[in-house]
Hints:
It is built from 3 helices and no strands. By secondary structure, it is mainly α. The protein has one domain.
Amino acid sequence: MKIDDFTKTGTPLGIAIGIGATVLATAVIPALPALARAARPTIRAAIKSGILLAEKGRELMSETSEELEDIFAEARAELLSESEIDQTEPAEHGEPSTHKEDL
């Protein structure tokens, strides 16, 4: 294997990244508990914000659902009313009208 082949495959870069990650891990891992304790208030605040946002979202969805149910009920009532009017209109065969406006 030639040196050019070795560098073209990206092996040196992989080795460098591995060594860097190892050095970084040995420096960071012992500090993780301290970092977690320091980040705890920030994480707790983020979780609280998420909970509040989820509750607001549920409220909004509930209100929207109620509004859509009302609109659906109104539309259904209008359709029923219109179908009742269509059924009471005089037939094309000359039957007398039952509407007050036509009398």
